[in-house]
From TrEMBL:
GO terms for molecular function: iron-sulfur cluster binding. It comes from the Bacteria. This is (2Fe-2S)-binding protein. InterPro entries: 2Fe-2S_ferredoxin-like_sf (IPR036010), 2Fe-2S_ferredoxin-type (IPR001041), Beta-grasp_dom_sf (IPR012675). SUPFAM superfamilies: 2Fe-2S ferredoxin-like (SSF54292). Residues 2-95 form the 2Fe-2S ferredoxin-type domain.
Length: 95
């Protein structure tokens, strides 16, 4: 099972999640409660995270991420609502 480490406001939250889990779905059902999110459909960017480690296991950014994040993708930013986690990952979210 993948381990997710979230850095947020000087705190670090670490949790094991089920393989192929979406963090925004988990946040919505209170199983990953610290993640900030909005629409869950790639339209608002409230779930933007910076991938610090484990990004090589993620798929390439989709068209929604490319449209909403633009050049920020090259700096490691992704939309959590568009990611399904298969391997350990470390992310940071600014709030």
């Amino acid at each position: 099972m993948p381990n997710v480490k979230l850095h947020q406001n000087g705190q670090v939250y670490e949790q094991e999640i089920g393989a192929n889990s979406n963090l925004v779905v988990l946040a919505g059902i209170k199983k990953f409660p610290h993640l900030k999110y909005g629409c869950g459909m790639g339209k608002c960017t409230k779930c933007t995270v910076k991938v610090l480690a484990g990004g090589e296991s993620l798929p390439e950014p989709n068209w929604k991420e490319n449209k909403m994040l633009g050049e920020k993708i090259t700096q490691g930013y992704r939309l959590a609502c568009q990611l399904y986690i298969h391997e350990d990952i470390e992310i940071c979210q600014e709030t």
